[in-house]
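Design a sequence for this backbone.
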């Protein structure tokens, strides 16, 4: 991109050495896009040490959006390549989970169907997961995307963002949110669905 567009700025996290990055950002850094759009950098490590999610707001009455790359997927999360369950808990449940519920979630890959199928192995009686899976299957059949989601939908359907619930911890034989997150990720890594 940098070679195609002379003078373009390419933003990326300061920790990961991203090829082509011209402007490095840290957690909390803000970038303006025109007069109306603000982009807040959120350090959301675990998939990589320096992973950054971008929270986008505008002066208009539009819903905010967050671009989560490989940290948060629809009904899932990224593998713990360079981090720990503690870091992923902080990234998902604290940092991203504290965003306003209507925030639209745009992730780096569309794994929605498989993630929802897996989510049902953790919470087979969760009606919201069942409904979203039916919707996602219809979207796929129609050739339509399943992205974006919202933070609110993720809190209802994403097992990795529901680990604070004692009933979910119990279902996976754990006694804490971090322990449950670690166990669910282990199950997902071994799932053959």
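Sequence:
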């Amino acid at each position: 991109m940098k070679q195609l567009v002379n003078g373009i700025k390419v933003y990326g996290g300061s920790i990961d050495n991203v090829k082509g990055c011209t402007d490095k950002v840290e957690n909390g850094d803000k970038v303006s896009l025109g007069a109306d759009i603000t982009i807040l950098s959120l350090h959301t490590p675990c998939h990589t040490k320096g992973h950054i999610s971008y929270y986008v707001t505008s002066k208009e009455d539009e819903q905010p959006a967050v671009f989560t790359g490989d940290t948060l997927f629809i009904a899932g999360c990224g593998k713990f390549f360079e981090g720990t369950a503690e870091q992923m808990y902080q990234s998902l449940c604290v940092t991203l989970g504290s965003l306003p519920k209507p925030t639209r979630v745009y992730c780096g890959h569309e794994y929605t169907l498989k993630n929802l199928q897996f989510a049902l192995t953790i919470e087979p009686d969760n009606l919201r997961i069942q409904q979203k899976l039916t919707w996602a299957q219809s979207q796929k059949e129609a050739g339509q995307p399943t992205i974006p989601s919202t933070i609110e939908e993720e809190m209802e359907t994403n097992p990795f963002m529901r680990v604070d619930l004692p009933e979910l911890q119990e279902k996976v034989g754990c006694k804490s949110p971090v322990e449950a997150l670690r166990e669910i990720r282990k199950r997902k890594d071994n799932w053959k669905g």
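The two ends are 36 Å apart (CA to CA).
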